[in-house]
């Protein structure tokens, strides 16, 4: 599998709604970070669905290397 593009080395705060599904960009090429805009087509990557369990802020990974995708685990600090 190819390596994803690092969109930025910091997470992105997103206000999510309980029960709503979001599609996280796994390739790093989306212009709508951290969410998918379809830029992955032809790259071998597919977006990851995330359904919010509660309403509130979540920190989504933008470096695309988190061990807890799609949420940030601090991996960007080691890149």
From TrEMBL:
GO terms for molecular function: 2 iron, 2 sulfur cluster binding; metal ion binding. GO terms for cellular component: cytoplasm. InterPro entries: CISD, FeS-contain_CDGSH-typ, MitoNEET_CISD. It holds the Pfam family zf-CDGSH. Residues 9-46, 47-78 form the Iron-binding zinc finger CDGSH type domain. Keywords: 2Fe-2S, Iron, Iron-sulfur, Metal-binding. This is Iron-binding zinc finger CDGSH type domain-containing protein. It comes from Mesoterricola silvestris.
